[in-house]
Amino acid sequence: EAEVAQSPRYKITEKSQAVAFWCDPISGHATLYWYRQILGQGPELLVQFQDESVVDDSQLPKDRFSAERLKGVDSTLKIQPAELGDSAMYLCASSLGLAGRTDTQYFGPGTRLTVL
Amino acid sequence: DAKTTQPTSMDCAEGRAANLPCNHSTISGNEYVYWYRQIHSQGPQYIIHGLKNNETNEMASLIITEDRKSSTLILPHATLRDTAVYYCIASYAGNNRKLIWGLGTSLAVNP
């Protein structure tokens, strides 16, 4: 069964350092999502791509966060500089991206970030 | 997207059916009900979704009331591995529709 891949699984960094997370969606999935999940809460969407284009980044803190999906396949989420409040699970999900149809999102295992 | 309300926590005995309720009284006619679950420290796992009719797959059954204001996810024979947080989400179909996640129901399956 095809899965969403993410790396690294765990990342510990000091505040003010730069961190990057990588996601490889399920093959053929046009839509890719990055979520942040703080412990004890549900996931919150940070950015959504349709192919290589950003369709929603309204909740992305653009002063320190950036995301790209240059070839419309895999994606990188970067934080620079990291702050203590960025400690969370970062989840990547993908879906087929079919307009007007139910579009189930499938999630990767996540990257657990700890900022010291 | 309609807001959903779920109990904070539930318990279930191993081998028994787990019935997880969800209220979505403001759901619109073309919003689907999705269920996901998240086992500790893992990514969310898709379970099932439905619009009007009851749905069943290899994981669970989804019962939606006729007025669509509430639904129940049924795990017919709960196992210890079903211990997780279960999220009920109402969302329109199609791409470019974000899922708005609440706090979910923490289900504990006890031996």
Comma- or semicolon-separated keywords:
heterodimer; A: 116 residues; mainly beta; seven-stranded mixed β-sheet; four-stranded antiparallel β-sheet; 11 strands; 0% helix; 47% strand; B: 111 residues; five-stranded mixed β-sheet; 9 strands
Describe what this molecule looks like in 3D.
The complex is a heterodimer of chains A (116) and B (111). Chain A has 116 residues and is mostly beta strands. Helices cover 0% and strands 47% of the residues of chain A. In chain A, the strands form 2 sheets. In chain A, strands 2, 4, 5, 6, 9, 10 and 11 form a 7-stranded mixed β-sheet that branches. In chain A, a hairpin with a 6-residue loop joins strand 7 (65-68) and strand 8. Chain B has 111 residues and is mainly beta. Helices cover 0% and strands 47% of the residues of chain B. In chain B, a hairpin with a 6-residue loop joins strand 3 (31-38) and strand 4 (45-50). Chain B contains no helices and 9 strands. Chain A binds chain B through residues 4, 6, 30-31, 40-45, 48, 50, 55-56, 89, 91, 93, 95-110, 112, and chain B through 32, 34, 41-46, 49, 87, 93-99, 101-104.
**Largest β-sheet summary of chain A:** 7 strands, mixed
The proportion of strand residues of chain A reads: over 45%
Enumerate the strands of the largest sheet of chain B in spatial order, edge to edge or round the barrel: 1-9-8-3-4
Which runs of chain A of at least 5 residues are low in confidence (pLDDT < 50)?
none
Net shape of chain B: globular
Quaternary structure state of the chains depicted: heterodimer
Write the layout of secondary structure elements.
The complex is a heterodimer of chains A (116) and B (111).
Chain A: E1 5-7, E2 10-13, E3 19-24, E4 31-37, E5 44-50, E6 53-56, E7 65-68, E8 75-79, E9 88-95, E10 106-107, E11 111-115
Parallel strand pairs in A: 2-11
Antiparallel strand pairs in A: 1-3, 3-8, 4-5, 4-9, 5-6, 7-8, 9-10, 9-11
Chain B: E1 9-13, E2 18-23, E3 31-38, E4 45-50, E5 55-56, E6 61-64, E7 70-75, E8 84-92, E9 105-110
Parallel strand pairs in B: 1-9
Antiparallel strand pairs in B: 2-7, 3-4, 3-8, 5-6, 6-7, 8-9
